[in-house]
Amino acid sequence: MERTGRAAPVRTVKRTGEATVHASDGSIRGHLAANLRRARSGLGLSISELSRLSGIGKATLSQLESGAGNPTIETVFSLSRTLRMPISDLLDASTAEPTVVRGADVEVLRGAGVDLRPLSRLETGESIVELYDQRVRAGRRQDSDGHVGIEHTSVQVGTLLVHLDGRITRLEAGDYIRFDATVPHSYEAPDGEVRSVLLLQYRPDRAGATITPH
């Protein structure tokens, strides 16, 4: 079955003095702003309702929708979980053109312990797969309350501890793990930095499910 790859063009956000120079619509911020507004409006949710459902402050959501916010991994995953849509649907520019992604140029999503670089999105008739370069910082841990999809992680460098459902799995370079991403989970780098490839897999009928505010 034919696969097509897509990756959002990215641009670095620079700071000049005290002012923040925000990236244009070609950045993660720009894509997130447009896609978040579209998804929220499509579900008939107000910012207040989305704030209540996601646990994200109204001021933060307003900033994100205006392209002025600074999205973290935790925020993006919370939106993905609440809106029941793939992360790439929030961050992607929706272009079908083939793209070469240079790791050094990709805008990074930073969390408490993890740096994620979105690289590509693959679609087939049976699933949507998002590809990320994932780096867990030395001595740090990244916790997730869970999000839609199946998570696949292949360790390239270092030792990774995966906390899942009360168990800890130790992975070394070359090891792989697959699990239901809706279950709360954590990644931890007990020694040095861990570099890995992360794939998030979704079934099309699970993406964009209808949410009824209550």
Report on the structure:
With 214 residues, the protein is an alpha+beta fold. The chain has 2 domains: 13-91, lambda repressor-like DNA-binding domains (434 Repressor (Amino-terminal Domain)), CATH 1.10.260; 103-206, Jelly Rolls. Helices cover 22% and strands 33% of the residues. It has 5 helices and 13 strands. The strands form 3 sheets. Strands 1, 4, 5, 6, 8, 11 and 13 form a 7-stranded antiparallel beta sheet that branches. The protein has a 4-stranded antiparallel beta sheet with strand order 7-12-9-10, with no helix packed on it. A two-stranded antiparallel sheet has the order 2-3. The longest helix has 15 residues, at 28-42.
Layout of strands and helices, then pairs:
Elements: E1 4-6, E2 14-16, E3 19-21, H1 28-42, H2 47-54, H3 58-66, H4 73-83, H5 87-91, E4 109-110, E5 114-123, E6 128-136, E7 141-144, E8 150-157, E9 160-164, E10 167-171, E11 176-180, E12 185-188, E13 194-202
Antiparallel strand pairs: 1-5, 2-3, 4-5, 5-6, 6-13, 7-12, 8-11, 8-13, 9-10, 9-12
Domain HTH cro/C1-type: 35-90
GO molecular function, one term: DNA-binding transcription factor activity
Keywords: DNA-binding
Overall pLDDT metric: 80
Order of helices and strands: EEEHHHHHEEEEEEEEEE
Quick one: how many beta strands? 13
The percent range for strand residues is 25-35%
What is the end-to-end distance? Answer: 41 Å
**Helix proportion:** 10-25%
Chain oligomer state: single chain
